[in-house]
């Protein structure tokens, strides 16, 4: 993100489209001066009072034309979102008017903000760290109330404080060990058992945090769950039943679904992207064959599989071939058509994939569908009990794993009787990863990647 903090930036901060109110935001050293060139405060109080809505008019100074009535609110530095001079101009939510206000501001000396530049400035000016910046964007894009709650807490600094606590304990350990190394003549006692206990507690804490990522990713991005099985086992009927609408065409004839269909459902605040696909088996048509190939690719990339079996028919070699093909994937076995006479040898099926959960349903009558929805969450995105913080980003998980790995190396050296200097060096390797996690250590590539996901006005 090539920019300078000496610039004053401007952008529309409300979503694209028509609305009752739209907001144009400016930030930078000339924010107030530029805003006064394009917005005239109504007499008899023409002065701008900080943090107070001041009524006035959007004005084109060249033509002296009044374009709209609205409010201006001024936030002096450092008491603003960016810790710079910030002005918000509230107008009617016409895209034409808002874009014209931006154009007038640029003509008066501002420049158009880059995506996420307001938040980037807040980060550079020390108002927030990178974890909080990510949480701000997560909150804006939240697809469930649960995720919004988590993102708001992290925006307020909950995860940052947790990582700061880990860092503080690591620094305390290093101080103790390095003080003994620096002053060997001083009788400073180090209890290896106590050091080991602190390391184990930190490793356990970081392990639980890293383990929360699977649930966090499900909340942030949603889960992709593919429904697969042989032809005519009731996949599309199950798909429609879970959606509670007739989305996929259902007929008694095999091979009705020749491509895949994707729709979303919400289950306990988690977005699940359901995919119905062509039945696996011998294709009767080139289009169906292509659908099977596409289905296999989707299944391989999915977070979980619902393997549907027709419980009213005998198991077949194709059933076992399907289970073997996706042996390494997370899956649930769904014995469908429980409203009919049960013929399938369930034990034989379950013996072929030990440890895999299963459920008996009737997609036609709706039997056990609520239980199936809950099992999908428990299997593909298990919720952690009493988990205070949840990681929502792979970047965060990778760095937490790195911190944990450094501490594990230090603990192993301690238990193997290595010298205190080697133990200290291993523990010290955790600190750069903490710095990258919070953004204390800056990486331009990472910063560009994070802030490019923001909208322009945030």
Question: What is the 3D shape?
Answer: flat
* Sequence of strands across the biggest β-sheet: 3-4-5-6-2-1-7
CATH class designation of the largest domain:
Alpha Beta
Number of domains: 3
Q: From N to C, what is the helix and strand string?
A: EEHEEEEHEHHHHHHEHEEHEHEHEHHHHH
**Which secondary-structure class do the elements indicate?**
alpha/beta
Low-pLDDT regions: 253-258
Verbal overview:
The protein has 458 residues and is an alpha/beta fold. It folds into 3 domains: 9-129, Gyrase A, domain 2, CATH 3.30.1360; 143-212 and 390-439, Up-down Bundle (Four Helix Bundle (Hemerythrin (Met), subunit A)); 222-380, 3-Layer(aba) Sandwich (Rossmann fold), CATH 3.40.50. It has 17 helices and 13 strands. The strands form 2 sheets. Strands 3-4-5-6-2-1-7 form a 7-stranded mixed beta sheet. Helix 12 links the parallel strand 12 and strand 13. The radius of gyration is 29 Å and the shape is flat. The chain starts with 8 loop residues before the first strand and ends in a 7-residue tail after the last helix. InterPro entries: G_TrmE, GTP-bd, GTP-bd_TrmE_N, GTPase_MnmE, MnmE_dom2, MnmE_helical, P-loop_NTPase, Small_GTP-bd. Belongs to the TRAFAC class TrmE-Era-EngA-EngB-Septin-like GTPase superfamily. TrmE GTPase family. Homodimer. Heterotetramer of two MnmE and two MnmG subunits.
Features:
nucleotide-binding; EC 3.6.-.-; 458 residues; Four Helix Bundle (Hemerythrin (Met), subunit A); 7-stranded mixed sheet; hydrolase; GTP binding; alpha/beta; tRNA modification GTPase MnmE; 3 domains; Rossmann fold
